[in-house]
Amino acid sequence: MKHMNSEVKEERTLNKKRIDLFLVPIVLIAAFLNLFKIWTDEYANAYYTAAVKSMLQSFHNFFYASFDPGGYVTIDKPPVVFWIQTISAKIFGFHGWSVILPQALAGIGSVLLLYVLVKRTFGVWAGRFAALAMALTPIVPAVSRTNNIDSMLVFTLLVATWMLFRAVRTAKFGWVLAAFAMIGVAFNMKMLQAYMVLPAFYVFYVVATKITWKKKIAFLTTATVLMLAVSVSWAVVVDSTSADKRPYMGSSQTNSVLELAFGYNGINRLTGNTSVTGSSHKQPAQTEQQTASSETKQNSNSSADSSQSSNQRKSSSSQKMQAPGGGNQNGMFNTGNPGPFRLFQKGLSDQISWLLPFVIFSIVGLFAGVKFKGPYTTNQKESLFWLAWLLPVAVFFSIAGFFHQYYLIMLAPPIAAFAGAGAVALWSMYKQHNGWKSWLLPGGILTIAALQVYILSPYVNSIGAAPIAGVGALGVILALVLAVRKQRKNSLTNYLGAAAMVVLLAMPAYWAMTPIIYGGNSMLPSAGPDSSSGMGGPPSTATNSKQSGFNGMQPPGSSSGNSSSNNQMQPPSGQMPGGSSNNGQMQPPSGSSNSGQMQMPGGSSNNSQMPNSFSSKSSSSKRKSGGMNAEVNQKLLNYLTKNNTGEKYLFATTDSTSAAPYIIKTGKPVMAMGGFSGSDPILTVSKLKAMIKKGEVKYFYLSGMGKGGQSDVITWIKENSKEIPSSKWQSTSSSAQQGPFGNGTLYEITLK
Prior knowledge:
single chain, 752 residues, mainly alpha, 6-stranded mixed beta sheet, 26 helices
């Protein structure tokens, strides 16, 4: 260990004032994975993009992160990341790529920061390996290529980590305050998720600083108070502002930021109580048992129609919930089932877990011989930091009731750090013949090969058997050869070690490229051959795996082109987030012919597919991959614009899905009466009457779902309005509008 530390110090001295040429290609790889073709994503995540469009229009909207230009309701997250996106859009113009750009740069910045953090203590090669592992972790570029928050969140937490490490090295309390204040800033990006790193910060500061316990407690207490003050600063301002002078706090039930932070975006994620309706409920475990959807490719010939009819009969006979790209019994949104091996289940393992076995071997090697009472080397202290980041976050994702695949980016920094530090440490132990520790390197390589074969096996129909067999065979051969040659010292052994790392990073590199190759999903980003579906997991049985995404859903006012309801998602017997007509349970649109099947937001009955923007087209044409329904019906827009007589809102609809593309297109206020999912208790009948009498809104587009807590309002609208003939606003003569959740209708209300 002393010899290794001296080598690290020598490397650090030699490279202190020299640009690391090995880092340049790593940064270029990260830049390619994060930036290439983001300009083809016209809407990104339309829910957040619409907010940026609104925030550009006034400081009021900017400060509160209003979803709509009218300042009716906010988005469901704090504003810091969206402030940055708005500034980017102000500088570069309002485009899909300009709101994605800050996250893409944050993804690249995280690679550089991890290099800096690991290199200083573990050596330049450790820093290089860590940076490369971070760049090639599939979920990292998948998230960074969107306007979702998580990439910026991780970058901010790594900045806080750099500040903490500097605080320990310099023994300056100011850096401790800065580090914890930065976590407070991160809280204003994604609330309690930022606090997942706190165990690492507390443990590391206690172990690494050479001051008295009294000072440690005093410093950490002061830093924590500052962190909490920064964390709640925006929330206190918003919650103390009169409700009639600001937008409603989206996705909360009491119009409170603090309730949103500790409820919907906090504890409910752990418990699985993901209700966003007025009544709380816990999602039954059985509702998370899904089967892969059997999606069919739309075809005009009779044989295809026959096949679709057959698939429809099979689908309608099933009472299990189905999701595009899902795996059998693989949890809702392909997040697996809670348990100690959840991160190795389908849908999660291919996003984050490629190097986890090697990380385990690295942890064993790095902590070998460590005594509980110390003293600890700098290597061991920083290894403890990364372990204290890794374990609590891994435990959370192993037991959490509700999260999305892209949240797993929180695990990327500690996994990459251990991969880099561990590669150097295990190689040193291997070459120095340190007893049993010299077997850790070949053992780690062998287990990685085995895991990668396991991860890839469900995708054999998409990528073929050859890559899977090749990775497994080469991994086993290289591990065995290294084991056999353990007593030999020559250049061939060095080449074998390098070859092993290349082989075992090959498939993660390919997986990291899949959002570019197959197309990405900006609402539910994930990596893999079905990355455009946003559901992760093994590919569906679609005729063309490149089109297994959410294709074909129609915008408000357009005809589906096919009245069948083939292969639509079926609702579980329990409840789902997003609300419904009365009690929060998902209900099919009334009068629809989908046999109890559930449609995703923004959907239609056209072959159960999502918007064309979600397809994995690799052409340079613009992709409107902006959530569930990033399309605008020009005929409807023309009708509403022509008949607007000074109303504040172009129209009102149940949820954000229908509203977002019209806000993006026109910059005009569109009211999402029930917020994001249509279930926020924002409106009452009396409030709506007052708005109509003041001439603020007169047109209402209503679909069959998304009502949630708005059922009384919806009923009143239907009873006191006149229906606008579909011929005036629909794209075709079809009498039924296929809207966000099925059949929809346009109404007009004028009160005197």
